[in-house]
Design brief:
Elements: H1 7-31, H2 36-53, H3 56-78, H4 80-83, H5 90-105, H6 108-126
Length: 130
């Protein structure tokens, strides 16, 4: 059986990745770590997207794609001074950005994102949002 993706599913996944990246980046810019409030925001944002995707298979694929795309967005945003040639320590900034991103997103925020999406998918299937 082949998975049929609709434009709504792709748009929800891209929007989900932007939401994830913006919440984590805001936390990293302010205090260099993700606090409980941001974890709750990630959870509820994932619940909303889970209700839109509603199908478990689409949710898992969307979750992996959203996390991967959000990691790329966060890396580009944190390395923007290097990309625009405003900073000279490119290697140090790149390694520091990777460390900041992975310290900020693993393990608790990833679990909150996944469980939020699963709860949203359950709600979407029960309420027949499709």
């Amino acid at each position: 059986m082949m998975l049929r993706l609709e434009l709504r599913d792709v748009a929800a996944t891209i929007g989900w990745s932007v939401v994830l990246a913006s919440i984590v980046l805001q936390a990293l810019y302010v205090r260099a770590s993700v606090a409980e409030f941001e974890i709750v925001l990630l959870f509820f944002g994932s619940v909303i997207v889970g209700t839109v995707l509603a199908d478990l298979e689409k949710l898992i694929i969307g979750c992996v794609a959203a996390i991967a795309l959000s990691l790329v967005i966060m890396y580009v945003c944190l390395n923007l001074p290097v990309i625009l040639h405003l900073a000279v320590a490119a290697e140090a900034l790149g390694e520091g950005a990777i460390v900041m991103i992975f310290r900020g997103i693993f393990p608790i925020p990833i679990v909150a994102i996944l469980f939020g999406g699963l709860l949203g998918s359950y709600i979407g299937e029960r309420l027949h949002f499709r």
